[in-house]
Amino acid sequence: MWKKSIAIGLLLTGASTFAAASDAGEVSQGRELAERRCASCHAIGETNASPNVLAPPFRNLYRQYPVDALRPAFLKGLEVGHRDMPRFVLTPQEVTDIIAFLHELNPCRKPSSDDTAMARCFAPME
Ligand code: HEC
């Protein structure tokens, strides 16, 4: 078990270094990937409902998890806690991109003068 934790720690460190280097590109890649692979069930927009009512809208994920903590699960294919969903395989780069996109959906990530974003940040969870 400890070996696994160390591996995850290394992955997280690697990811944040990488994310700092090329954030913008990854967000658009991640969005595109989410549209293709996840949007048939999950809402990936800022206000729409999920096509599959059981699937949490991606914009709410950050309220349940620090989204970086999803990385190991995404690398494994989210077998855990994802019973109504076919197991998917993502490359480490795709995982980095999706996580960058999930960060982008988090309106509380940075202070903002955008009232709509701030209202979403403090809104009750759907
Ligand atoms: C076929 C429908 C479907 C697709 C496609 C799908 N999901 Fe899901 N997802 C679900 C459902 C349903 C849940 C709710 C979990 C449950 O109770 O099974 C879920 C839950 C999740 C969760 C929360 C897991 C938890 O433990 O709370 C994450 C994160 C997630 N999905 C990520 C993704 C990503 C990333 C993709 C695309 C690569 C994706 N999903 C594609 C149906 C889907």
UniProtKB/TrEMBL annotation:
The UniProt record lists the keyword Cell inner membrane: no
Pfam family, one: Cytochrom_C
Entries under InterPro entries matching the protein: Cyt_c-like_dom (IPR009056), Cyt_c-like_dom_sf (IPR036909)
Domain Cytochrome c span(s) in chain numbering: 25-106
One GO molecular-function entry: metal ion binding
Keywords tagged on the record: Heme, Iron, Metal-binding, Signal
Signal peptide: 1-19
Protein name: Cytochrome c, mono- and diheme variants
Organism for this UniProt entry: Edaphosphingomonas laterariae
Phylogenetic lineage: Bacteria, Pseudomonadati, Pseudomonadota, Alphaproteobacteria, Sphingomonadales
